Amino acid sequence: MVDHNKSTSAPAPADSGERFSKSGFIFAAIGSAVGLGNMWKFPYITGKYGGAAFFLMFTVCLLAVGLPVLMAELTLGRAGRGSVSTSFNRLTKRKGWGALGFLMILAPFLILSFYSVVAGWTMYYAARSFSGQLFSNSDYSGQFSSFIGSWQPVWWMLLALVLTAAVIIKGVSAGIEKFNKILIPGLVILLLVLVVRSLTLDGAAEGVSFFLSPDFGKLSAESALVALGHAFFSLSLGMGTMITYGAYVDKRQSLGAGTMAIGLGDLLYAFLAGLIIFPTSFAFGIEPGEGPGLVFVALPAAFAAMPLGSLFGGLFFILLAFAALTSTVGLLEVPVAFACERFGWSRGLSVTAITVLLFILGIPSAISVGGAVDGWQFGEKTFFDWMDFICSNILLPLGGLIVTVFVGWVWKHAADEAGLTSGWFRIWIFMVRYIAPILVVLVLLYSAGALDFLF
Ligand code: PFF
Q1: Cβ of 97 less than 6 Å from ligand 1
Q2: pLDDT tens across 167-176, in order?
Q3: CATH code, domain carrying 87
Q4: Is the CB of 330 under 6 A from ligand 1?
Q5: Is residue 11 part of a domain?
Q6: Could you tell me if the CB of 244 is within 6 A of ligand 1?
Q7: Residue 15 within a domain
Q8: Is the CB of residue 32 below 6 angstroms from any atom belonging to ligand 1?
Q9: Do residues 104 and 243 touch, judged by C-beta distance below 8 A?
Q10: Are the C-beta atoms of residues 190 and 36 closer than 8 Å to each other?
Q11: How many independent structural domains does the chain possess?
Q12: Which of 83, 122, 177, 181 could join 321 in a cystine, given CB atoms 3.0 to 4.6 angstroms apart?
């Protein structure tokens, strides 16, 4: 069933026996899923698309479509036991799949180049908050613009990349697994402290009801497509991470149970993030649909107005930085596994070479949001916006489509690897064959503007 003849010049990390422990895999996958998507993007799109109604759509998309696709990626990865394109090649003799798999190696590389910019912003804000400098001047919007308008984001991005590289260089169990096992419990503690703080603010109830009492009149086809796209981003789908992580999972581990744990962990995290951001915003009269500046511009104002604000603000940005770094490691592992396998490079060389390339590619993103090359606009989008758009709106749904078509239609042995009962298998494969690809194509068409006439 597994065709090893097609393996490439050097063993993939998974071939050389790199494996997660059972709990290590769950921690690492939840770490990848939980990230800036949950704390930075989710709140402002939820604010924009109607609060609770959007959260409901997101939940439905995540459970009904996200989980089956996540299960498909993990199954494919564990059966292929290679970097993404090799895993495809090993599971079918049909030509072209390895090249399509390559797209899913390119996507995380490109994402990382701008995701690490935002990760850098969070570390800068954590440092400024703890030192109190953030609160010494109440013009938060001015502070944010002067920071992103300078060259400083380049150095903070470099710090994010170097921290990520330092974890990945240590390998799967001593690096990725250990890092996540330390950071995730820290993340949960910080999250709970901040939930208690925000729910006990005067005026918190209004924010809770915005987030949790749905107004079904606000549901629209557009918000459903945005919710689906975000469910994919949030579960790290379509970008090779879950396929690569799947390659390090022990054969005895249940992928069904793992999928549930990762999906529910991600959802719970988004829920708790909402319980921090919306009550805090409402308590201080901040518009939650504010946009990408919400957590960097609006929330500092809220922290400044609360007792021990610089402590809570610092904790909040540390939380964001932890969440970002457990995701950046998942992104970097994808091209690193590929380079080790395809070029026969050592892990150290692969990590170093890719990190240098990422740093170079990240510079235009770091200085294009209000910075030196902000004026380089193509079609009203900055370099940063284009990277985000190409990755999140095109490469990611395309990756999702490739996986669902492959697992649903091309690869004939998904059932053997998945280890589901026949009832669950039928539900899963039905979703993977029919529902997920159709919905993903709709997201792609929507992103390409082909459905604009409907909205
Ligand atoms: N899931 C992460 C988030 O929500 O921030 C983003 C992400 C990480 C996407 C890793 C893809 C990935 F491979």
Answers
A1: no
A2: 999 999 999 9
A3: 1.10.4160.10
A4: yes
A5: no
A6: no
A7: no
A8: yes
A9: yes
A10: no
A11: 1
A12: 122
